[in-house]
Specification:
The protein has one domain. By secondary structure, the protein is an all-alpha fold. The chain is about 70% helix and about 0% strand. It contains 8 helices and no strands.
Length: about 150
């Protein structure tokens, strides 16, 4: 059960099957969040629905990644953390701000050059696995809401 959740419904295992490497698994997890985000926007759901979904995904990340990160590793196939971080970035957004938030969160997670992202990743166990994506998601959220305020 934890493996299914940690891999975002086994999406994190797809790259290994396709090209023999976990490289890119996080993007599969982020794509799941984007699909969920599109459904939330299409349903014209209130902002708090995306907040609840992001909170649930963050909890599931902490719970499901724990046994796989106990030795301090961040297995590449574990991508529920990217799902959670991306859902955080999309809270209450639609249109261009939604897209900007998605891109900023993903780039912040991949490159880890923004303050706090790399430091969060160094935290122990499942907290470190999840925290860098949460911080990256918060950068995306700030960018998206910033653009929304300008529009």
């Amino acid at each position: 059960m934890r493996r299914a959740v940690a891999s975002s419904g086994y999406l994190g295992l797809v790259p290994s099957r396709l090209w023999g490497s976990d490289s890119g698994a996080g993007t599969f997890g982020a794509a799941l969040a984007a699909a969920i985000g599109i459904l939330v926007v299409a349903a014209s759901a209130p902002w708090w629905v995306s907040l609840v979904l992001a909170g649930m995904a963050t909890f599931l990340s902490l719970w499901s990644a724990a046994p796989f990160s106990a030795s301090g590793e961040d297995p590449g196939w574990v991508c529920i953390d990217e799902t959670a971080g991306t859902l955080i970035a999309l809270i209450g957004l639609g249109g261009w701000p939604w897209l900007l938030a998605l891109v900023v969160a993903r780039m912040a997670d991949i490159f880890k050059v923004l303050p706090g992202v790399r430091a969060a990743e160094r935290l122990p166990g499942a907290v470190g696995v999840t925290a860098d994506d949460v911080v990256a998601g918060l950068y995306g959220l700030a960018a998206g809401w910033g653009l929304a305020a300008l529009l």
